[in-house]
Structures are given as structure tokens and as C-alpha cells.
Amino acid sequence: MEINEVGVVRNDVDETKKQGYFRDVESIIEVKEEFADGLQEIERSGYLQVIFYFSRSEDYDLVGPRHGGKIRGVFASRSPHRPNNLGSTVVKLLSRDGATLKVEGLDAINGTPVVDIKPYAAPFDSSSPPEEKKEDPRRKIRRLVKTGDLENLLLKAGELHGHYCPFLALGVMAGNYALNQLGEAPGDMEKLVAVLETNSCFSDGIQYSTGCTFGNNALVYRDYGKTAVTMAIRGDRGVRLYYKEDNYLKENYPERTELFDRVVKEREGTEEDERALKRAWTEIAFDLIHVPVEDIFKVEQIRTPDLPDYAPIYEDGYCDLCGEKFMAPKGVGEEDGPQLCIPCAGGPYLQLDGSGLREVG
Length: 361
What we know:
- This protein is α+β, with helices and mostly antiparallel strands.
- The chain has 3 domains: 7-125, YaeB-like (Elongation Factor Tu (Ef-tu), domain 3, Beta Barrel), CATH 2.40.30; 130-302, CATH 3.30.1330.130; 316-360, no CATH class.
- 28% of the residues lie in helices and 25% in strands.
- The chain has helices at residues 122-125, 130-135, 139-147, 150-161, 166-182, 201-210, 248-252, 254-265, 271-288, 293-296, 342-345, and strands at residues 7-10, 26-31, 47-53, 63-65, 71-73, 86-97, 100-104, 113-119, 192-196, 219-221, 228-233, 238-243, 297-302, 316-318, 325-327, 349-353, 356-360.
- The protein has a 6-stranded antiparallel beta barrel.
- Helix 6 (201-210) links the parallel strand 9 and strand 10 (219-221).
């Protein structure tokens, strides 16, 4: 069997890095001249699959400790130490200049040989056929939770959140832990409930990993300002997780927290500071998911969770001024008189924003 080197990776990374480091790293793939014609029309693809050769890998174990210390077979891992030393990554194609491709997210160091490039095609590369997704849209996520695959859970949660950060990772960790503690919830859509005590990045990690959201009435928000969540099954039991290690990030990543203060708290960071923070937060997030939950969370088992009733179904009301429909209990006015919606009435209302839940107007 013969494998041809079709190109080489060029970037600023000269040594192996931890998982998650390469998410935002930009690399150049220099394709050899004799293969350049094979790139025709490649820029029509937004994402590519890049197959490369781990040129510095010398040996492998069929079974052994992998990332995070778990014992797995080599074919059940992403280890770079493999029988044929081949790696595969889906990358974002940023641009093409002749025989040169600029990509993002290629987890290969400078000088890595590339052996194949192909467009990423969701209908073929997706792990679940459309009909299966229609029957159970969270099937893949539930499998990730059951197997404790926090890295892929965090990767997917980033699609919802828009970036990776430590508190998104904490939410994914807490949601995954709670679901595995509670076991399979009944099929009723509101049987499993999450009671959140914060509206920070933590909340998106909870929503993605558990499937409890405001829209499906399985997410309850209590404006306590604590990084905590209670996951519970109605009529059964629950578990509450509270982030107890407030100084964990400051003690373990002091330079990164100073960067956060400058960019986010003080709003004085440069564009380069913002990019550096994004890279740092990504690295920390993917480091954090390997910390045992009990080391950074206080975990409480709850026998009789305090949960609100099932969401009621309200009658419709119509504003006598603008004509728009609203939930009838939200109308403003006397019972037998004109009914106005809250904006038309100019009355106060509750708003959930970055400050928490507050009355406006």
C-alpha cells in the first residue's frame, strides 16, 4: 500500500498541544504542484476533511490511558499514536490562493504531511440519518451524556453559545453529571426539570446538555445570582450542583483572568486582546471538563424537589388598541372593560437581561 503526501501544514505551532487548543488556530495547507489541479472548485465547500500523517508519532498501544486518563482501545480514541499514524479533522476553509488553502481548526502542528483533502458533506458525514433525527432529535446528545463524552458535548454546546468559555464548560459538566445521576427521565416533555439560579454562560451549558429550555417549559429561572442548578424528575428526586470553587480560575489561570478583566469587565482590551481571550477561554474550557465534578461543585441529593406546577395553557386575548394577540392573563385593564397589551398600556413588566430579572417601566 502506497500513500502519497499531497501537501504540508504551515502554522506557528511547533509542538503537540492539548485537545481544544486548535479550535481557532489558522493554518496554511501548501498543496504540492503536481496535485494542485485537484483543488479546482474546492472553494465552493465551506468545510473540508483533512487527512494527515502524525510524522512524529513513533509507537502505539492497542489499549491504554487516553486523554483524561480513561483506559480505551486505540480505535476508541483520538490518540495520535496509531497503527498507521493517520489523523482526520474537519476544518473551516477560509480562503484559497492557487495551491494554498487557508483553514481554521486543523489540529496538526507545523510541518505535518497532508495525505488527502475532501469536502465535508453533511448528508454523508453526519452520524444519524434524517428519519432517525426526526424520531428522536436528541438521540446523539443522549448518547454523549450516557458515555460521558464531555468534549463532544462542549463542542456542540458551543454552537448554541457562540464561543467556548469556562462557565459554558461548567454548565455542560453539571448537566451531564446530573442526568447520569438521575438516570433516564420519563417520556413526558416536562417530567425532567432544570431549576437555574443564574443567567450566565453556565445556563447555555445546562440547556444544551439537558434539553431543558424556556421554550419547552422544562427550564425554571430563579434569580439568585448563584452558579447552581437543580435537576429533578417530577414526583421523584433531584440533584443540585453549586459551583463552590470561586477562585479556581484565578488561582489556576491568573494571566487569563487578568485578560478577561481587561476585555470584558473594563471594556478596554484591543482586538488582539479579544482574540487572545477567545483562544485562552477555549483552552481552559476544554481543560476544565477533565476536572472531577466533585472537586469544583458541591453536590446535594434532593428527595423532594421544590418545583412549579406544569405550565398552564392560557386563553388568548387581543389588544383593543394595536389588535395584537397575547396571553389573556397578561392583559391590562378592568375585567369588563377594554384590554390592552402591556406595551400599549405603558405599564411595568419583567425583563430578563444581563442584569438578571428586573422590573422595567
